Amino acid sequence: MKFIKSKNTDGQEVNLYYEDLGQGKPVILIHGWPLDHQMWENQFQALVEGGYRVIAYDRRGFGKSDKPWTAYDYSTLADDLKAVIDQLQLEDVALIGFSMAGGEVVRYFSRHGGAKVRKAVLVSSIAPYMLQTEDNPDGVPQETIQAIGEGLEKDRAAFLDDFGKQFFGVNLLNHPVSNQMLEWNLHVAMQASLRATTECATSFATTDLRSEMSSISVPLLVIHGDADQTVPIKATGEQAAQLVPHAQYIIYEGQPHGLFYTAKEQLNVDLLEFLSK
Predict the structure, then answer these.
(1) Is 16 helix (H, G, I), strand (E, B) or coil?
(2) What positions carry a catalytic annotation?
(3) pTM of whole model > 0.85?
């Protein structure tokens, strides 16, 4: 297996598992919570066939990467992304971050100046700020965030099973994914440690990136579903597009949070078009 070596601020070494496929300009796919790099399988296929070198890694604490007890803040996660770019000696990189990974993309620009990056994409992203506050009224209420932690601590498998249904927009009238797909996603999510799952939930729910959005100096594509019940579009996708005036903003009508699967054909077309410009 292939690993990138990163470090905590205390010097502890952390191994990050990654996949590296295809040839051409590099694209880094950064996965969402609570999954790992495997969520990108449909995008891997489309982008490699489209002539790109595609790299995806497991965030620390998830998948096959090391699972340290501490350091799940966005600054450390952005440093992990930098380690991937530096150790693979990548140039002219396109970053594609889904959900939680939007925070890594934004913090990479504010913390590392967007070094070696030529384009960026935020898909169903938590950026710029997911928590409901007086000046962010469309965000997720604090009690909802608290319930995530409580549900994970009480019965992680049961909580993530229910979460997966909301994630993909499954309800009595709509079933856009198969039961087998839901089961597979639960299996992937359970490969993470409980500690990483809860710590990352705190990071993506409470980190305010609004002042950092202006650091994105490259072409930016923002994609968000207007039926996203996990990461509300008004507080995130809509605000991101407003805070980065040069951003291209595409709303997927009727699509839930997990549109990387429920709208995979459309997403793949939009990604390829944006990357080729």
Answers:
(1) strand
(2) 99, 228, 257
(3) yes
